Amino acid sequence: MFRDLPVLARLLQHLQRIPYLASKNMYHVAEYFLRLKPDQVEQLCAILLEVKQKVGLCNQCFAWQEYARGCMFCLSSKRDQSLVCVVETWQELLCIEKTNGYNGVYHVLGGVISPLDGIGPEDLTIKQLISRVDNGIVLEVVLATNQTPEGEATAAFIASKLAGAGKDIKISCLARGLPVGSSLDTMDRVTVYKALSERRPF
Ligand SMILES: [Zn+2]
After folding, report:
1. Distance from the CA of 77 to the center of ligand 1, in angstroms?
2. What is the CATH architecture of 64-201?
3. Dist. CA 60 → ligand 1 center (Å)
4. pLDDT per residue over 60-86, tens digit each?
5. 64-201: same fold as 2-55?
6. Interval between CA 122 and ligand 1 midpoint (Å)
7. What local confidence, expressed as pLDDT, does residue 2 receive?
8. 3-class SS shares of the chain: helix, strand, coil, % to 5
9. Ligand 1 geometric centre to CA of 59 (Å)
10. SS3 of residue 140 by DSSP
11. Would the N or C end of the chain have less CB density within 10 A of its end CB?
């Protein structure tokens, strides 16, 4: 049935499936694609296929990595492997990277606990974080989930799990003073940097 639609309608249907692409923006994106030159379309398709073949999640921190190169965080000798910053998604990881002021490593949860959306702790990488802390290398975990009700509840859940696991590590969170309900990707670099560098015990 899908294939019987006119090709333009099929393009729009595919774009409609992209989360976060509001319908108004969707038409702009469609227009952008339609105006691309054939060789630009080929390049775009080629890079999408290449990324699908070569990129996957790191099995320690769950950030995207290129298999052949390995994880740029977990395998870096220039990074402090004892400091782990826990973020909701890769997007927040990039916000922190953009500050150029964080030298530790990450743990990407893959979202937040949200019972209304049917997302429980087992749907996130919390279990993997707890066992990662077991390796004896991790000395501090910074809970940098967004300051939304779900983000805070997820941080509290993780903190209780870490405490319950009896690990002698420091648990901290971002500095106070951030606007309530704020997420890292809506803040400027300096604010994110300050929130991290002035972090406090959880
Ligand atoms: Zn990694």
Report:
1. 12
2. 3-Layer(aba) Sandwich (3.40)
3. 5
4. 999 999 999 999 999 999 999 999 999
5. no
6. 20
7. 57
8. 45, 15, 40
9. 7
10. strand
11. N
Tell me how far apart the alpha carbons of residues 21 and 26 are, in angstroms, rounded to a whole number: 6
Cα–Cα distance measured from residue 75 to residue 177, given in angstroms and rounded to the nearest whole number = 34
Ligand 1: distance of its center to the CA of 3 in Å? 40
pTM of the complete model? 0.85
Residue 30 tokens, joined: 């469609």
What are the extents of the domains in the chain?
A: 2-55, 64-201
Torsion 146-168-122-54 (CA) sign? positive
Are 40 and 54 contacting, i.e. CB atoms less than 8 angstroms apart?
no
Q: How far does the centroid of ligand 1 lie from the alpha carbon of residue 106, in Å?
A: 7
Residue among 180, 173, 181, 179 nearest 198 (CA)? 173
For 2-55, CATH number? 1.10.8
- 22 Cα: distance to centroid of ligand 1 (angstroms): 31
Count of CB atoms situated within 10 Å of the CB of 79: 16
Distance 63 CA to ligand 1 centre (A): 6
For 146-157, the pLDDT digits (tens) are 988 999 999 999
Distance CA 46, CA 1 (A): 27
